[in-house]
Specification:
Residues about 1-30 and about 35-50 have low confidence and may be disordered. The protein is mostly beta strands. The strands form seven sheets. The chain has a four-stranded antiparallel sheet with strand order 1-28-27-26, with no helix packed on it. A four-stranded antiparallel sheet has the order 2-3-4-5, with no helix packed on it. It has two domains: about 1-45, no CATH class; about 50-330, YVTN repeat-like/Quinoprotein amine dehydrogenase (Methylamine Dehydrogenase, Chain H), CATH 2.130.10.10. It has two helices and 28 strands. The protein is globular and about 45 Å long. The protein is about 10% helix and about 45% strand. The chain has helices at about 5-25, 35-40, and strands spanning about 50-55, 60-65, 65-70, 75-80, 90-95, 100-105, 105-110, 125-130, 135-140, 150-155, 160-165, 170-175, 180-185, 195-200, 200-205, 215, 225, 235-240, 245, 250-255, 265-270, 275, 280-285, 290-295, 300-305, 310-315, 320-325, 330.
């Protein structure tokens, strides 16, 4: 038998053994995975072992196309990690108690809340050049409450960054090119806002207050919808078709139709918090776990153990990253 013929026989036999072994151990049942997925080790449901140390109290993340940016709230800085291998490429100082982060295609925007320090009033938004972390500017998102608006989250709409101001109960629209304030919106209708997402035409904001999801028109900031889902809306994500909102109080995840805010589904998840979309499925962080739901119908596909209480999640096109309160990142 020639070496060529031997290889042709051995490869199917090895794959058959692999699938037989997996089935015997209850690992993969009725698998639809192809050999290419097996070759790159993507036949596992999740890689639960890769972890990277970062700064103190990582709270949010952004992906710039090549690197992961992590906000280290207790360290007053942001870390830049290479997505391919988790190598730290730089750590950059920002105003105290940074919270939210977003990428605008060229620069990184970070909110500095000054929270937890009554003697510090430096609520601001910082713009860092993504290539080298150089500080390009610092801006006050709500001058009516100078240094006291408590910006906690941020979203990018393609031209502007929208800043969620928890203390002043508003969202600010800042032009990304020069940091000029385009307007402050939502006052009297936002109550302790905590997160935001962009659906291509509107900005969606979650609140800890009574009307816990508010929809603002991106063009002018006008409020075009207010919706009650659960009790305490927290995380929010857009999947290209629908809005997903987590509520840790009722331990549910809600799927909303963007056009009218109608609830298309309610799905139970243990202690839901952070949420992200990977192109096909919705991932929801729990206490020490992350749950994977099929975006089309909310079916639970799996629950996986990760670091302690993931506060944020982001998808980089290939892997899911979670920021854990034990000062680590998990990469699935």
């Amino acid at each position: 038998m020639s070496k060529t013929i031997g290889l042709i026989i051995l490869v199917p036999l090895s794959l058959a053994w692999l699938f037989g072994s997996a089935l015997a151990q209850g690992g993969v049942n009725n698998s639809t995975k192809n050999p290419n997925q097996i070759a790159i080790l993507h036949w596992y449901q999740a890689n639960q072992t890769t972890s990277f140390a970062v700064g103190r109290a990582p709270t949010s993340m952004a992906f710039d196309g090549a690197n992961i940016w992590v906000v280290n709230s207790a360290a007053n800085n942001v870390s830049k990690l290479r997505a391919s291998d988790g190598a730290v490429l730089g750590t950059f100082a920002v105003p105290s108690s940074p919270e939210g982060v977003a990428f605008d295609g060229a620069n990184i925007w970070v909110t500095g809340s000054g929270a937890g320090n009554p003697n510090v009033h430096d609520s601001s938004v910082s713009k860092l050049r993504a290539s080298d972390g150089a500080l390009l500017g610092t801006f006050d998102p709500d001058p009516v409450f100078p240094g006291a608006s408590l910006p906690v989250a941020i979203a990018f709409d393609g031209a502007n960054v929208w800043v969620v101001n928890s203390a002043s109960n508003s969202v600010s629209k800042i032009r990304a090119s020069d940091g000029s304030l385009q307007g402050t919106f939502g006052k009297h209708q936002l109550f302790n806002p905590v997160a935001a997402a962009f659906d291509g035409a509107n900005i969606w904001v979650t609140n800890l207050g009574p009307t816990n999801v508010v929809k603002l028109r991106d063009s002018d900031g006008a409020i075009v919808g207010s919706f009650n889902v659960g009790a305490r809306a927290s995380g929010i994500a857009f999947d290209g078709a629908n809005i997903w909102v987590t509520d840790p109080f009722t331990r549910n995840v809600f799927k909303l139709r963007p056009s009218d805010g109608a609830v298309l589904g309610t799905f139970a998840v243990p202690s839901p918090g952070a949420v992200a979309f990977d192109g096909a499925n919705i991932w929801v962080g729990g206490v020490n776990t992350v749950s994977e739901l099929r975006a089309s119908d909310g079916v639970l596909l799996g629950t996986f153990t990760v670091g302690q209480q993931p506060a944020a999640m982001i998808f980089d096109g290939a892997n899911l990253w979670l920021a854990n309160v034990n000062d680590t990142l998990s990469k699935l």
